[in-house]
Amino acid sequence: MKALRILSGIEIVGESTAVAALHQFTGLRKLAIYRLNIRKDGDTFKELRSSIEYLGSCGLQTLAINDEGSEFINSLDTMAAPPRYLIALELSGKLERPPQWITKLHTLNKLTLSVTILRTGTLKLLCELSSLFSLTFSLSAAKLDQDIEYILQKNKSESDGEIFVPAGFLNLKLLRFFAPLVPKLSFSDNAMPALEMIEMRFEAFEGLFGIETLEKLQEVHLRVNDKADEVTKFLVDDLKTNTERLKVIVDYVVTA
What we know:
This protein is an alpha/beta fold. It has helices at residues 43-56, 72-75, 120-126, 146-157, 230-242, and strands spanning 6-13, 30-37, 62-67, 88-92, 110-114, 134-138, 163-165, 174-178, 181-182, 185-187, 197-202, 204-205, 208-209, 219-225, 247-253.
């Protein structure tokens, strides 16, 4: 088991005696849990967090977790030591806050987080990650339920109705948003100076502002749900029509 490098496509639901054995996979470089639903006060919850902390000290490079509601991903911030060798991290589900140890991941190249923590404070936390090449905010749910909509609106209200992208992200080249709703985004001067592409997939969209300051930006690719409202369609058309210097691609996606 020490020779195993990739453990992917794992499903952990309820109590599992197998989780304790993860400590033995000391050669693991990638761990991907595609479905997780465990009790917060259960043994599996504690053992899984302990295993991830241990494997993170052994050279784990890629960690992906899709948490369906066990609050596990929100407990990762309590780990005593960060998984310092990570080059790729993906945390999906109703994430409430980013783990504070993210700022210590100096080799992190690719980061995917739930759109539920898309707020100005999160971007301020991430902007000093000097190795970050790709940043994605996503939501696995196909539709915008009331809980998610409330979280997104609350995030906006905490920063005067829009999300500000601060200066920093010196080596970021790809920025992506995949969610039913993408809130209003404003780029500060000196934000993302190396950014080359913005990619979005959404049903509701509130606009991109300040992209003229992104000197290296070459392309904005928007995939719009065909059920988008008129305001969203207007903002998309305005962005495409009135943006000079870069390519704006708009695809309307037909849904069942």
